[in-house]
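Side project, low priority. Logging it here so it doesn't get lost.
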Amino acid sequence: MTRRNLHWFALGVVVLLALALPAHASEEGGDNLFTAPIGWVFRWIQFIVVFGGVGYLLAKKAPAYFRRRAETIVASITESTKVREEAERHLREAEEKLRRLDQELAEMRQGAQREAAAEAERIRAATQDDAKKIERAAQGEIDAAERAARMELKALAARLAVERAEVLIRKQMTPQTESALLQSFTRNLAGSAN
C-alpha cells in the first residue's frame, strides 16, 4: 500500500468509528455517549473529520473553482470594459456627427439660399431676355404692319389720285384738247427719232 492510500484508509476508519460508535451506543440504550467523556472525544473527532474533509475539499477543489470563477469574472470585466469603451466611442461619434449635423444643416441652408438667389437671378435674366425678344418681335410686327399700311395707303392714294385725275381729265378733255395733245405727242416722237 502506498503512503497516500494508507492515509485514506486511516481517515476512513476514523470517520467510520466517529459516526458508528454514537449510533451504536444509542441503539443499545446504555449511557448516552454524547454526555460521557468519551462522547466529547467523539464529538471533537466528528468535528475535525467533517470540517477537515470540508477544508480538504476546499483546499484541493476550491482554488481551481475560485480561480476559474476569478478568471470568468476578470474576463467578464474585461469584456464589459471593452463593450463600455466601444459604447463610449459610439457615443462620441454620434455626438460628433450631431455637432457636424448642425454645421452641415447650416451649410446646406446657406447653399440652398445661394442656389435660390442664383436661380431667381437666372429666372429674372431669362425673363428680361424673353421680354426683350417679345419687344423686338412686337416692334418687328409693328414695323411690318406700318410698312404694309404705308404701302396700302400709297396704293390707295395712287388709286384715288388716278381716279381723281381721270375725273379731272374727263372734265377738261374736249375734242380740241385731244387733238392738240395728239399733235404734241407725235411731234415729240418725231423729234426724239431724229
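Brief comment: The two ends are 179 Å apart (CA to CA).
Revisit when time allows.
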